[in-house]
EAL domain-containing protein (Anaerofilum hominis), 918 residues
Amino acid sequence: MNRLIRRRLAWLAVLLLILAASAASGLGLRYAIRGLRQKEAENVLVYYSEKILLQMQGTLNEADALAQTAYVMGAGEGEPATWFGRAAAPLLERDEVRLVCLFQGDVMAAALPAESFGGLVGKDLQDFSYIYTLAKVVKELVVEGPVALDDAPGLQSVFLFLQPIVEDGAYLGQVAVALDRDYVLEQLGLDELYAQGYDYELWRVEPQNGNKEVVATSRPQADFSQAQKEVFYLPTQWTLSIQPAGGWLSGGQRAGLFFWCAAFAALLLTLACLADRTARQNRALRRAATLDGATGLYNRSGFRAALDSWLSQPGSGPVTLFYFSIEGYAQAARLIGPQAEEAYLRSIPARLEEYIHSPFLAGRPDAGSYIVALREEMDEAQRKDFAKGLALELLLQVRINGEKSFLMARYQYALCQPGGGGAEDAVAELIRAYYLRVAEESPVRKLTEKCRQLIEGKNDVTFDEYTDIEMMELSKAFNRYRKQVEQLAYSDPVFAVGNRPKFLRDTNMLISYDKKRRFSLYCVDVCTFSQYNELFSVEIGDEILHEVLHRLSRPFGAYLYRINGDVFVGISLSNEKAESFVARLEDLFALPITVGSLSFPLQVRVAACLYPQHGDTPNALLDHIQSALRYAKESGQGAVIYNERLDELIRTEADVLRRLKESIQQGTLEVWYQPIVLLENGGYSAAEALVRLPDGRGGYFSAGQVISLAERNGLVEELGDYVLSRACAFMRTQGERLGLRRISVNLSVQQLLVGNSADHLLALIEASGADTGRITLEITESVLIQSLDRAAQALDKLRQTGIHIALDDFGVGYSSLNYLSNLPVDILKIDRSLTKQILTSPKQYALLRSIVEMAAINGLMVVAEGVETRAEQEAIASAGVQYIQGYYYARPMAEKELKQFLAEKSGARGEETALPRA
């Protein structure tokens, strides 16, 4: 009864699994079909979004030609009424054109038709909508619409095309053209999407309030939450969403999925029934499968089960296991024929019964081998005699070429104690001991040892020849295989050229064979090679590298190696001077490289070093030539030959690294602070932590050099953690008493992009006891823009705890002001390269004001760095900057000096002037 219940429960579970599998397969097909349709929609979406961009920026952009005319006629001077009217006349004759106007600077100089819009002339840019100011800020075409013109309430909605007039990056004015909404939408051809079976929705983000504004839609009530979307910028964010009008799955497809699930479930049920039937048959076979069919003895599994039963009996004595193997049994069996083999096998049980008089177990693990378990008290001599006698009993007689031959069974025995382990382990250990002993007596052992030597890395192993034909062929095969493995280990698989290990091996061989022979090393690096992979494809990049290798093979031949990516090293055995050889290498790349119809001019850097002047080992030579290449990159030189200056540079870097490691380990690395002034009250409410490494001569190493070396040598995380911990500890113990409400610490890209970086940084801050709301982490603008996607998650997690993020070196030229709202930062730090130009360049001063205005719009605070004079301070203050950091107020200073400095500024001690949260 219990067995029947268990069987029914098992079948219930199987049915549930079948239903789950059917449902899963249906879902899988559903997602696959949906994925195909989404892929198709994605392709359509890309085409239409590109079409919209081309229409907006090209065909429909009537403002561009007028802007060019305005630039030629001198948009910044003169009376534009006459020439602008003539230029715009053909445009105004078109029914879809509603307004054409010209701004000179920030003032509207002309507005046509004059009868409708003449009253706008003379108005300032700020009197119009925000979109006109946005065109001035971004200095590129801005498209807005559909909108209603404020000064023409009777007009229908229009699209505004605002084309700035720019000279050398300076804004001179702009041309605005308003086109009828229906005309623009007709030109975009969105109704074609609906004709193809897609619902569509074109919408944009209103830049002032971030609201979604629908430009056009096929059905206003349609839900586009599951639609495919494509985002583009004009330069405000526009989005085109499409989805099949009937849903991603049609009614026929849904019905097909239902029938598929039903059929799949029926198939699984049939298979389950067959599997159950097979399982029941297998159980019956297993019950009868413990015996060897040829001899009637136990087979291997049956013997193990019987021996386990013996060993588990309480009070049983020791058991001796004997293993017998007839070497060459398979060949002998073929010689004697199946009938004689069958007779021999059938005689085995009788032979065992006749020879053994004590309780025993016997099995035939495989053809030609037998195993016997004997329960009898025996000493070592008795076991040996028993084994010899039974081996004779198992003797196999073979007739070869009319002569009788006898195959003797070889043996191995071992004592097996009850409770000492299972039968399987005992049998396996006995057979293993047998084959280990046999292996020591055969040439295969030597062959195996040579293979082991190869695995351990020895390269002077040779496989001997043997008198045995099969062993000799095996030895030859191993020799061929070894050469193939060496080829794979020392060759670049893509370019069929030597790799770094081959370079080290070949160089070591050159030095070992003749230490007095001189040779030269040349390292060639393709400048900015990654841009070809990014702009074209990896295949194009590989073709370029193939041609580079082809050209380099001329001077280097077989001594050419691909060390890393696009870096190649060649060995020259000629006596040609390095300067002449480098010039020849540069000439190799004078002509562009052609791939298909594309032509690529390449620029290379070359580094050289000589043996033995610059190193007497392969690794030393490689290190020195890579140092020379690195120096060429940092100095901007096209070619560098390793010299004493580089030796001194390497020694200096080694000294800096040694001092840096020791000072971090000993806790003696200095952290200085530079106060930051809040202009509103003149108080010192914040400071930036800066690392200072003594040079041992009364001075300090350059902070930039220290950080660069730390980044190249894997110390930047340790260095950053040290500075952050010291700064946080200082803030906890001294900050509030000194009037500081925040401390800033620079963050390296390596600290930010490692796994769990946010958790690690938060753990350091919490361990110091500092309040996270008083900590600002600074990251350079270039690092953030280039790694925004990877860094955003970590920065958002840090900001959620109250930590502020400052964007350092802002203004160098990476990011657009239009994208400030998307950056995960709270503070902008204006770079010195911008602040030092504001007194001599009105454009730079205007840029500073634009940055401050955009920062205010996005709720960001602004800190100006590098302020050194009163004139700079006054100009920056007039631009609306809230905070100033620079030598004009205070230089970086040690902790003790900072305490004294802030103590003297007693007015700042009681003020609450922390950096407000963005």
Notes: The two ends are 74 Å apart (CA to CA). The chain has five domains: 56-244, 300-441, 442-489, 500-642, 654-906. Confidence is low (pLDDT under 50) at residues 465-469, 908-918.
